[in-house]
Amino acid sequence: MKKFRLRPFISFGLFWSFIVAAGSGVAMFFRPEGSLASWTNWSLLGLDKKAWESVHTLGIAALLVFAVLHIILNWKPLWGYLRKTASRAAGAKVECALALRLVAVITAGAIGKWEPFQRLIAARSAVKQGALTIEFAPPLADAVDRSLTDICAAASVTLEEGLAKLRAAGYEVGDPSQKFEKVADNLGIS
Questions:
Q1: Poorest-confidence range of 56-65, 73-82, 152-161, 180-189?
Q2: What's the helix, strand, coil split of the chain in %, to 5?
Q3: Rounded distance between C-alpha atoms, residue 44 and residue 24, angstroms
Q4: Quick one: average pLDDT of 48-62?
Q5: For a Cys staple, 55 with which of 12, 24, 107, 130, CB 3.0–4.6 Å?
Q6: Model confidence at 61: pLDDT above 70
Q7: Helix H segments across 30-139?
Q8: Are the C-beta atoms of 149 and 177 separated by less than 8 Å?
Q9: What percent of the chain has pLDDT over 70?
Q10: In this structure, are residues 130 and 123 in contact, taking their beta carbons and an 8 Å threshold?
Q11: Backbone phi, then psi, for 85, in 5-degree steps?
């Protein structure tokens, strides 16, 4: 049996946690805003909004841990490379300056809301507001976190009228003071 090697373990951990963080970041880009994701029962690859947030948060945490360990474990070779490269940096000044400028322009474009960067931000906002998933909007913000009693009051409908409409549609609500998300879960609907 081979001896366990720390360097390859950390390198593979860094690689796989990057894949998880990047993949979950893409999924999070395409999910609607929190309450809309709950309202529409949004999911991607069988995972809902909360699951993707958990995967992303822990993926980023793992990525940071592996990155720090990778730097610590490879500090001497990294420092030697940086010193050697600094002495040869004359050959890469243009590339370094160009990469720095590109990152600076992207950062400034995000802060200054410049075109064409704003188009990507606007597309993300449209997705977050449900442009790809909403069949009908919730009656009020964060409806999933409110009770049926609150929703009826906000819609200027008496609780009795609301319950009657739900019964007519084939839905029997046991406790109208429960969060609407719990009522929908109990009924097996979004």
A1: 180-189
A2: 70, 5, 25
A3: 10
A4: 87
A5: 24
A6: yes
A7: 34-39, 49-73, 75-87, 93-112, 117-128
A8: yes
A9: 81
A10: no
A11: -70, -35
Distances (CA, A) of 31 to 28, 85, 156, 180, 181: 5, 42, 31, 20, 18
Cβ atoms 138, 41 nearer than 8 A: no
Per the document, the length of the chain is 190
Residue 29: name the closest of 9, 53, 60, 13 by CA: 53
Specify the amino acid at residue 6.
Answer: L
C-alpha to C-alpha distance for 109 and 107, rounded to whole angstroms: 5
With b meaning 16 or more CB within 10 Å and e meaning fewer, what string describes 99-116? eeeeeeeeeebeeeeeee
Say what the pLDDT of residue 87 is.
Answer: 61
Cβ-count burial of 77 within 10 angstroms (0-12 exposed, 13-18 middle, 19+ buried)? exposed
